[in-house]
Automatic annotation (TrEMBL), chain A:
Keywords: Cell membrane, Membrane, Transmembrane, Transmembrane helix, Transport. InterPro entries: MetI-like, MetI-like_sf. The lineage of its organism: Bacteria, Bacillati, Actinomycetota, Actinomycetes, Micrococcales. It comes from Luteimicrobium album. It is found in: Cell membrane. The chain crosses the membrane at residues 12-31, 78-102, 109-130, 142-163, 184-207, 245-263. Its main location: membrane. Residues 74-263 form the ABC transmembrane type-1 domain. It is a multi-pass membrane protein. This is Lactose ABC transporter permease. Belongs to the binding-protein-dependent transport system permease family.
Automatic annotation (TrEMBL), chain B:
Keywords: Signal, Transport. It holds the Pfam family SBP_bac_1. CDD domains: PBP2_TMBP_like. Residues 1-25 form the signal peptide. This is Uncharacterized protein. InterPro entries: SBP. Belongs to the bacterial solute-binding protein 1 family. SUPFAM superfamilies: Periplasmic binding protein-like II.
TrEMBL record, chain C:
Its main location: membrane. Residues 1-170 form the ABC transmembrane type-1 domain. This is ABC transmembrane type-1 domain-containing protein. It is a multi-pass membrane protein. It comes from the Bacteria.
Amino acid sequence: MHASRTFRITMTAVAVIVSLLFLAPVLWLVASTFRTATETFANSSPVGWSTLWPQHWTTVNLSSAIDNGFLRSLGNSIVVAGVTVVVGLAISAMAAYALAVIPFRGRSAVFTIVVLSFLVSFEAIAIPLSQSFSDWGLSNSLVALILPGLGNGLVVFTLRQFFLGVPPSLAEAAKLDGAGPFRTFWSVYLPLTKPALIGAGLILFLFQWQAYLWPLLIISHSSLDLAPVTISKAFGGFSTDYGRVFAETAILAVIPAGVLLALQRYFVTSVASTGSKE
Amino acid sequence: MSHHNGVRRPLAVVALLTVAATALAACSSGSDDGGSNAAAPATLTEPTSPVTITYAGAAYAADQIQPVLDAFHAKHPNITVKYEAEPFDDFNSVLAARLTSDKKSIDVYDVDMPRTEAYASRGYLADLTKTFPELKDDVDPASLKAATVDEKLVAMPYQTSTNILYYNKTLLDKAGIETPSADASARLTWEQVTADAKKAQSAGGAQYGLVFDQIDRYYQLEPLAISAGGSAGGNGDGNLTPAVTDAGWTKAFTWYGQLFADGVSPRGVKVADTPNLFAAGKVAYFVGGPWWGAQFTAEKKLDFGVAAFPEFEGGTASTPTGGWSLGLNPNDSKEKANAALIFMKFMGIDDGGYSQYLTSLTVPPSNNEGSAKFYESATFKDPRFAGVVPLMKYELENTATLRLQTVGYVEFEDTMTKAFDDIINGTDASQALKSASSDLVSAWAKYKK
Amino acid sequence: MAGSTIVWGLALRPDGPVNGVLDLFGLPAQPWFTSPHQVVLSMIILASWIGIGYWMMFLIAGLNDVPPVYYEAARLDGAGPIRQFFSVTIPMLRRPLLFVLVADTVSNFVLFAPVQILTDGGPNGKSDFLMFDIFHQSYELSNPYQASVELLFLLVLMIAIVAVQFRLLRTDDGEE
């Protein structure tokens, strides 16, 4: 028992230190939001409390961000990422269900193509794709921003892996109860793979949340700009508003972190709910 | 699934080929479609019905340029200019995607002066010679030269630039260093500045002695090579033969690399961070554009002064210059081109050009009449800026050195930035310049047919 | 990604906070991104920081699906925590592990934003990774054909590695 307790304390200490290391840059970013860029640079070295704690609190960075339309582009980002997560998850989960559960001819070929699809990086095809989009009259629209994010090979892949892990006996039991394939999908597979669905949603979400090149190419009205593009516009030819960059980057980082924290309980309770499996 | 194994492999190969072919087609269709430089008309007519034109810019933020656009709309009520600010670093990618894909999405756009030839050869620029035949009466000669390719005017120059040496008076006083004069005739040498910078670090508590604003950019570093007797970086037919390994380049960049090896300048700092270091009072000497004046004067506790851009001992004085022009999309419809040209004329010529409408003006306009007003700007009235106006006038007239004019400028700037970064990080200068030279030979091969 | 990159770029500056922390422990300042010998290491630190929390989520999701009875059985058989990890956790985690392995490999093969923002392929070309060069050739230098050739190489390389990964983590019934 004694050895196991030392082990546990050591592991907990390691976990705390690692998470502090992960948190420090975020704290620095948040601190830099509430002080002038000059103060941030003046206190970057040597490291002390003043590195992570502003000496003179100010909200000029936040108001500069708001004045430059950051709230509007943040709203665009939220809409685009939100729609992508909902629609993308629906498409991908159904595709993954087919690939994992429903036997059909050429299933492994389809799966191979899905895997290959995410080997080609999006940047490699962005310029020609943007030309096709403008030929189709789609440039400068939310649809143009959302469409490329919907089909995501990685998401289909991960959900397929988790669906394969669901015991077939449960699906058979559902079938005996008279459930069709869609019913089985909805009431057996989805509830059992909630953490995986959250992870898959995160992939879809981050694709749009960090999207930079694509919106830059396809959007020319600043009213439709996504948040990362607005941030990069702080780097002008003759001036860089670093304080604004810090503030906007902090906001952009805090939102997904907050959403994940809210969803954290699914990772914890899942053990109890799936403990009965097999 | 094991019964599928027999067909899996060929299917995978087919899938692979399909993907590869798509990628190949995708990548290659991004190429340019040759030069179809349409000529702009000789006369402009005020439109009688509303026209909206799109202006893609990288020089100014949207809120900075808005007063100019409002003033234009007041004078030409039938023309509305929609401004799209693009990030400076990605501007070329954006132009490549917009000017080749949706040909009508941009009417007029910012042209970084040294890239004029490259854009013209890709067919991005309409010929403006007939529309603005008398431009030489209105703008400074260096700007006009930068907008001219093969004796054709292909862009409307509107803004140029110069650089000065800022010093932190507090740090210099502490180290007992005499503050330099703002007089161009009292120009310091780099050797002197280096010695004083080290002294400011050891005796004055400066974290860094000397920092260049554009730390790894050819724009600000070219004058070092010229001052040491080097070339602009290329010569021969079309300036397409690299010349970055001569004695001047080697001398200048051995010195530059030594600054970083000695800790006089900081490694690992990006261009956009450098002014903040000076504003935070950590730097004794800072080489930069007058446009940082607005930021520096806003720091009430920062006691600074200005002096001329230094030169090497026994060398010639040379200062960075160049700025932005406006280009016209050659595929524009007649109606839009006419409106866009009226706007370009307003920006570059009418009553001294755009600069009078800007709220805070920190970069000299190309227009002669406009630059007279520029020197009256409130920023330069700050006592810490004493002497800057005659200094800037002198530099623009006498020592301003244009960047290398070549169709291969994009590759040139890219290669040189990498070479400068390597020199900053400790690579021997002559070795870095030699490898840059051989990189340039292969990068420029496509232009030499 | 861009945000983390900018933050880490500033943090790992030779005069930045990371060297400040090293200094607190009496360690010498490191050149990080500015040294040809450390730039790859610094990129690995950066990419790992971005990646660890992200990919861990999928493994946690997989861990939750391991029935606790397996651990109880292993404990009854006298297996310690390390033995349990290798004999229960890893085999039961095979499917999520395959996904994480493949997806993490691919996403780092096509990683180029930090290189573009921080080092531009330097110093001395030591961080000129394949995907960065592809991006650089096609977006900055307008060399689409060279970029296409490099992209093909990258694809073949990734397909080979991913194929090995699929084979390694294949289950006995032939299902990945």
